[in-house]
Write a structure and sequence with these properties.
The structure is a homodimer. The first copy, chain A, is α+β, with helices and mostly antiparallel strands. Helices cover about 35% and strands about 15% of the residues of chain A. A four-stranded antiparallel β-sheet of chain A has the order 1-2-4-3, with helices on both faces. β1 of chain A pairs parallel with β5 of chain B.
Chain lengths: ~180, ~180
């Protein structure tokens, strides 16, 4: 059992880490992290996802390069992360896609968010830092990793050990977004 | 600190609960749950969300009715849940919306999924059962709760105490969706 205060502390302690130590991440940690993703809830249990763990240094560099924008000076830190988890969105099941049509929204994007959060919180419990990258070159990563055209690379999760003294202290405060019974 | 095995057990213990006890849920639990949502990561820290906690029985019944489909025989159980958390998607910030345009995807739907997962896992740590409902009548719920047209109701999270002997045992097994270094 996890007590409620510890759980909230874990979530509050998570931040988007953009510095990693080169120390490799153990495979049993990775396995628990992806297991957390795999067990996540999804619309009609469609599980519209596939996770590719990239810890081979050469492949990791190629995937990292496909998240970088030299012009916007973004995501150069991704290649520092010893592990990248590539989150591929797959076609969902029939009932979920019927729901998409009727309700005119793409539940599978929400599902991808849920599974990603599960992996990030498991990684936090494993003592790892993470950063979720949404800026990805889908086509290029698919080519590097042999992902079929039916899948779409939506996110890349960076994971690795961090130097706690170096963890970035700055984060924007969250807004007031909660109300009771009325908006 | 939460140890990694306990965290994974918590996630594996979560299921979509469709039976609730009428026992009310304490407000301090609700506050920690929504706090977990509020602290969640989002694209460019855009926080494109607003959470409305509905625990007033009359309003709760009206929101529940807006998730039900009599024809499809769906979601009649929602009115049993003592608390509903209505997840409203708001317009994100400029940088995140610029990303949407360039990358042609709606990051805010992913963000909504992440925040929802945070709330569900905090609720689990609080000893509550949950079920995420994606089948919602956005317009009707907006009217009931006074949500402005700029917001869109994407999900409703049911939360409440459950009778462990009655918890539904059946869930479809998750698929094999993890690979290493290649798809």
């Amino acid at each position: 059992m996890i007590d409620a205060e510890s759980m909230l502390s874990l979530m509050k302690g998570r931040q988007s880490d953009r510095r990693y130590l080169s120390k490799p991440v153990e495979r049993d940690k990775i396995e628990r992290i992806t297991e957390a993703g795999r067990m996540s809830p999804s619309a009609c249990n469609g599980q519209p996802w596939h996770f590719v763990v990239v810890d081979d240094p050469a492949l990791r560099d190629q995937v990292a390069a496909a998240t970088e924008s030299v012009i916007l000076r973004m995501n150069a830190f991704v290649r520092e992360a010893p592990v990248l988890i590539v989150v591929v969105r797959e076609k969902s099941n029939f009932t979920s896609r019927a729901g998409d049509l009727i309700k005119q929204k793409d539940y599978s994007l929400i599902d991808i968010g849920i599974a990603t959060a599960s992996m990030v919180y498991q990684a936090t419990a494993e003592g790892l830092g993470t950063c979720i990258i949404g800026w990805v070159d889908d086509r290029r990563i698919r080519k590097v990793l042999g992902i079929p055209a039916s899948g779409k690379v939506e996110l890349v999760i960076c994971a690795g050990y961090t130097d706690n003294r170096l963890r970035e202290k700055l984060r924007k405060p969250p807004g007031e977004v909660i109300s009771y019974n009325r908006y």
